[in-house]
Amino acid sequence: MKKIEYVDIKATEQVLEVAKPELEKQEDASLPSFTKELPLSKKKKEGSETTTIDYQWGITTEDNIKIKSIEFRKEEQLSDIYRLNIKDGTDTAVLRHKGAIYLIRKTSVDIAKALLSVYKRISGLVENVVGYFQTLFGHVYTISKIEKGTWTFDHGVIDHEVGIRLITPDTLTDKQKARLSDIIIQKISSLHAKNLVLGSFSLKNLLLTNKDSHFTDLRNLRVSKKPSFIIEEFKAAIRYLLSMGIMGHDGVYPAVASYCVANENACREWHKERLGDQAVSNDTYDIANAIESEIYN
Fold it and tell me: Which residue, 153, 199, 202, 265, has fewest beta-carbon neighbours within 10 Å?
């Protein structure tokens, strides 16, 4: 049974500290002036795994984020967050709260709910999705918890103060590039084995730590049971890695071969679609050759 708690907000103000990304263009991320505008009340509901809080607000004169509703995993300390010093409608922002680092991204309510729901199934592959919220102006944001000491290829989320640092392909050695290629192919293979596709892949979709790596910006993540869509994303990822100089041509076939082993059924179904029942080979070598050939065509 869910526990419902009604609370009147007192005059004590708690405002989440915002880490400003180091960007040349910060038009959407500009911070509004500080005021003491507070919600009138809140309704708190405890579920088996998540907490939901709905806030009631009076007439507002600010354009910064005021949270209308928030749902988050119960282990997260987010029950005292109701206003952010970030312009409502900003696409992406990095936040600090009670020693933790969070990344919020604007999306739709359906995608936000789906990501929170599916996270346990793919927790080793993607960033730590802990919740989502809807603002007073109707925008919806996913909330992901980020480890301190994370590296990113995305200029839009770097913040040295909180420990999110920028990495670029030209700073990597050949050995590091080869290792990075292996990591990406392994992660994509594992994701596709669960019939999930990123929608498109770039280095901005990757967060690196000293111990692991995860896909980030999951707003285009989709379920796809059609092998052709899955294999097409894999081929596009290989082409992208080649164009960025992360993967060399000598690394293409080993990547394709390992992918075929990890996603044997999807690759065989793709091969069947391409060549028809009579031409289908059960030999992984033949299927890998067919995929490699299409990467270059």
Answer: 265
